[in-house]
Inverse folding.
């Protein structure tokens, strides 16, 4: 017999141990969630903050109090020409508006001949570039350049802004006095300004070598193009494979060889899902970029999209298989009972019922493709590219690539730019996933 | 035979008779020329085949992966790295010291003191410097570090093998001199005069290279001052070469060197993949040390403690971790984890790029993988086992530790191995945070040092302007093949264990 006291103590000890460990189990979950929150906070912390700027002309003195980026093209062009020498204005006109000119004769040609698509006053049109006055150049600039382009020109040519130092959001909020002191001491000429590295202009401008002017336009468009190509190739093939495996390979008895082939496909898809993504990049580099180089023209958006399509194919197939499997068997039996053939049953009953699940799976796969970086690096994303992608055969860059490149740069400002790009990337992913949820909810309500 | 089975047998018989009847009807009764068996069969067959092709695409993908990796990796083992040809000569100005003790083939530290603790030969300091080549008998060694009384060496370099040496053998210091042209070489000249300090290391029939021109050695002069060659060999163009140009010889990677050597710098002829593998193992181990307890703990909490409602909120949050792009984790590692580690352990101990930071963040990334599969395994343990354990008076913790976790062990191991495979194949975190550069020093077991992993190396090499056919281009496929084999084996083991586990309770 065990003494009662010992027994009691023993029970108490076991209970205490149980409570201790349950805290550990809960704690590990909490650590994971805290890590996630820290991750998001780190990104947000760096996407916003304070910068110390120096400029040659204070932008506030250029306008009547309105911020520079809300002015019309006419006003911006006026600011530009009135703050620059006439010679500099003419160079801008030549480099940004005329662009294609004959270096030998352009100084002698009348301006109207250089700009055949513009409607100019007769008196202005007859002048040559060298005799145009600043007042005459301004409307031509306003007419042919976008407000974004004019704004950038004003910033580069007139304001000549430069970042002297930058601080994160947390510092801005908690240690602003220290920032002010530091700035006064080290950069007396620097003007402190709150800066959201993520802003409308950031979305609209391409990559630049200056952190203040860098944007994600090219990368965002590149990502969208790649998504489009990926879906175009992966979706039909993925659904086809899933339908085959679920509706054709399983049903009925087949020869041994046939069953073996089906098992092989099934196992193979499971294993493909576990292949590291960088290996797909190498597949893309060898097969799409080199072997099929004549078709894909090398390191292009098409090669990248095809590589991504292969990468997410297993994800789409596995999810679509699950969605198809979830369709109740009675629906198929009813359809067969009505005399429908197998394809009629699949196309008119099973697929519509499984569609929300397939959509969700596809979007999950696509969000994986959006965030993947390694395969694109291997396939050959361009390191510095400022022109928008125009088709299958453009060079490309993508959002995660841009994040990677900016993160790898030594200047701390580019870390902040990278953080802003991450926010864009996460918003893109979030909206994709939200679409998946909305689609699933809407369709499943209609069918039930 | 029990009555139940008899009954079932009867029913089966009835069914098959009914089926037979139906078949008879379909075969014989074609009233008024209407054959109800007639269906658009051709369409059906075409569609089935199209769908089959869709399924086969996945097989083609696998075949393409294996083909491209194998094909290009073979290209790596067939490619040549061109290195400057050198002669090794003994530097006679350095005094020869006799080794005081016998050295066996595995020792890397050679102590050069007498029994009294004095340096041998009455020296006041050792006459060696790091990166010097020394020779004992026929074995050449590379000095890596020199202390007051001993030298640390890398054994068996320069194509020699490590061997045992008796005491009293002299240590010779070697100098390596590049072999250069002694005068300008015209495009037609077949005889090449060379400046060299020792014996020419060429054999007849060997291909050598000057700038971009390959030549085949046909004869070596007995006095070691010139060789006769066949110019413009292997389709290269015979050109004029200036005086002092270095002669290059080729080196081809072998599988043995690839798998066993400890330096990786393919451009200069170091083909050992091990440093990359070590760095990969290091980051993987760190990641698993984080993700295994966290993932398993979270799985136990979600499966055993959490109410259905809190599980419904907590689980999706955990799954967001799995949806965050890896490049974002890389950013997190370099902007949060690295400064944190440097703050805790000191900036002197932790380098800016280090494996610990990458490994820790990778561990966080893998938590949802491990927790979701483990949780499935834990929930699959039948309720009856839990109830039996509670009935015997076990507490909840004892039930979990002694009954549920052992019951779900194979599933947990499968999750663990899958997590390992993800860590091995993860690229962006290590590419951003773990460091880069030629992997020549092995930083195994030094987590706060930089270390380039296999994936990190592939990403770095292919990020630049990679020209096809260069040894760098081919080498990444050789690494990729090794990586593919590693992850495939891990995935197969994981799948195998998971299947075994499924059979236990069904």
């Amino acid at each position: 017999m065990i003494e009662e006291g010992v027994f009691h103590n023993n029970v108490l000890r076991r209970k205490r141990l149980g409570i201790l460990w349950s805290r550990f189990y809960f704690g590990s979950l909490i650590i994971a969630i805290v890590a996630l929150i820290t991750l998001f906070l780190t990104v947000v912390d760096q996407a916003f903050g304070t910068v110390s700027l120096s400029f040659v002309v204070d932008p506030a003195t250029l306008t009547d109090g309105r911020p520079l980026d809300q002015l019309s093209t006419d006003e911006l062009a006026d600011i530009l020409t009135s703050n620059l020498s006439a010679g500099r204005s003419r160079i801008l006109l030549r480099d940004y508006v005329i662009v294609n000119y004959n270096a030998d004769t352009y100084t002698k040609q009348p301006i109207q001949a250089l700009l055949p698509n513009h409607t100019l006053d007769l008196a202005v049109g007859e002048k040559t570039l060298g005799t145009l006055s600043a007042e005459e150049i301004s409307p031509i600039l306003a007419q042919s350049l976008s407000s974004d382009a004019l704004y950038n020109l004003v910033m580069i040519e007139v304001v000549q802004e430069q970042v002297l130092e930058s601080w994160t959001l947390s510092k801005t909020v908690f240690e602003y006095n220290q920032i002010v002191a530091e700035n006064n001491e080290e950069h007396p000429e620097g003007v402190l300004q709150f800066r959201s590295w993520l802003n409308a202009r950031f979305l609209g401008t391409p990559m630049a070598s200056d952190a203040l002017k860098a944007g994600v336009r090219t990368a965002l468009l590149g990502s969208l193009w790649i998504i489009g190509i990926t879906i175009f190739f992966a979706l039909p093939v993925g659904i086809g494979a899933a339908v085959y495996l679920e509706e054709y390979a399983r049903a009925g008895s087949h020869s041994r060889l046939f069953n073996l082939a089906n098992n092989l496909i099934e196992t193979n898809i499971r294993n493909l899902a576990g292949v590291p993504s960088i290996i797909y990049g190498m597949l893309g580099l060898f097969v799409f970029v080199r072997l099929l180089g004549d078709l894909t023209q090398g390191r292009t958006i098409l090669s990248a999209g095809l590589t991504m399509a292969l990468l997410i194919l297993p994800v789409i197939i596995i999810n679509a298989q699950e969605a198809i499997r979830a369709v109740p068997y009675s629906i198929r039996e009813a359809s067969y009972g009505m005399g429908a053939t197998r394809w009629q049953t699949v196309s008119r009953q099973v697929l519509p019922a499984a569609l929300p699940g397939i959509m969700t799976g596809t979007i999950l796969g696509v969000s994986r493709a959006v965030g993947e970086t390694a395969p694109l690096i291997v396939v050959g994303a361009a390191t510095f590219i400022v022109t928008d992608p125009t088709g299958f055969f453009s060079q490309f860059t993508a959002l995660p690539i841009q994040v990677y490149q900016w993160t790898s740069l030594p200047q701390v400002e580019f870390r902040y730019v990278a953080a802003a790009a991450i926010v864009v990337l996460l918003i893109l992913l979030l909206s994709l996933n939200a679409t998946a949820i909305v689609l699933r909810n809407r369709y499943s309500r209609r069918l039930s | 035979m029990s009555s139940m089975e008899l009954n079932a047998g009867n029913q089966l018989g009835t069914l098959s008779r009914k089926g037979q009847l139906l078949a008879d009807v379909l075969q014989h009764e074609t009233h008024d020329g209407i054959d109800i068996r007639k269906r658009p069969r051709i369409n059906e067959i075409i569609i089935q085949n199209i769908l089959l092709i869709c399924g086969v695409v996945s097989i083609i993908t696998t075949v393409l992966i294996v083909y491209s990796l194998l094909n290009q990796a073979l290209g790596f083992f067939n490619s040549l790295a061109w290195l400057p040809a050198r002669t090794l000569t003994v530097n006679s100005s350095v005094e020869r010291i006799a080794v005081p003790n016998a050295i066996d083939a595995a020792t890397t530290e050679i102590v050069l003191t007498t029994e009294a603790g004095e340096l041998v030969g009455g020296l006041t300091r050792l006459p060696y410097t790091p990166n010097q080549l020394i020779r004992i008998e026929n074995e050449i060694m590379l000095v890596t570090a020199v202390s007051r009384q001993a030298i640390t060496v890398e054994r068996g370099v320069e194509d020699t093998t490590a061997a045992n040496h008796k005491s009293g053998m002299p240590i010779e210091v070697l100098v390596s001199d590049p072999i250069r042209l002694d005068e300008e070489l015209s495009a037609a000249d077949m005889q090449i005069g060379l400046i060299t300090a020792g014996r020419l290391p060429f054999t007849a029939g060997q291909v050598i290279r000057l700038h971009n021109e390959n030549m085949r050695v046909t004869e070596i002069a007995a006095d070691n001052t010139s060789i006769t060659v066949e110019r413009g060999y292997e389709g290269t163009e015979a050109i004029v070469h200036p005086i002092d140009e270095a002669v290059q010889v080729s080196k081809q990677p072998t599988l043995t060197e690839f798998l066993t050597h400890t330096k990786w710098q393919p451009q200069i002829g170091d083909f050992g993949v091990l440093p990359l593998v070590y760095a990969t193992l290091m980051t993987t181990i760190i990641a698993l040390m984080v993700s295994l307890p966290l993932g398993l703990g979270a799985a136990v909490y979600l499966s055993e403690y959490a109410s259905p409602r809190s599980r419904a909120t907590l689980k999706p949050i955990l799954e967001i971790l799995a949806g965050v792009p890896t490049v974002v984790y890389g950013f997190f590692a370099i902007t949060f984890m690295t400064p944190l580690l440097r703050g805790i352990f000191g900036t002197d101990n932790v380098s800016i790029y280090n494996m610990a930071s990458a490994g820790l963040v990778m561990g966080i990334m893998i938590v949802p993988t491990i927790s979701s599969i483990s949780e499935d395994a834990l929930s699959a343990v039948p309720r009856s086992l839990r109830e039996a354990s509670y009935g015997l008076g076990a507490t909840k913790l004892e039930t979990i530790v002694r009954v549920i976790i052992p019951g779900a062990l194979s599933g947990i191991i499968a999750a663990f191995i899958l997590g390992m495979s993800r860590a091995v194949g993860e690229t962006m975190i290590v590419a951003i945070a773990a460091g880069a550069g030629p992997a020549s020093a092995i930083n195994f077991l030094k987590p706060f040092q930089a270390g380039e992993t296999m994936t990190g190396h592939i990403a770095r090499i292919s990020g630049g302007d990679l020209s096809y056919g260069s040894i760098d281009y081919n080498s990444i496929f050789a690494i990729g093949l090794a990586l593919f084999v590693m992850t495939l084996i891990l995935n197969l083991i994981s799948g195998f264990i998971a299947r075994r586990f499924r059979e236990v309770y069904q």
Q: What stands out?
A: Chain A has a mean pLDDT of 84.
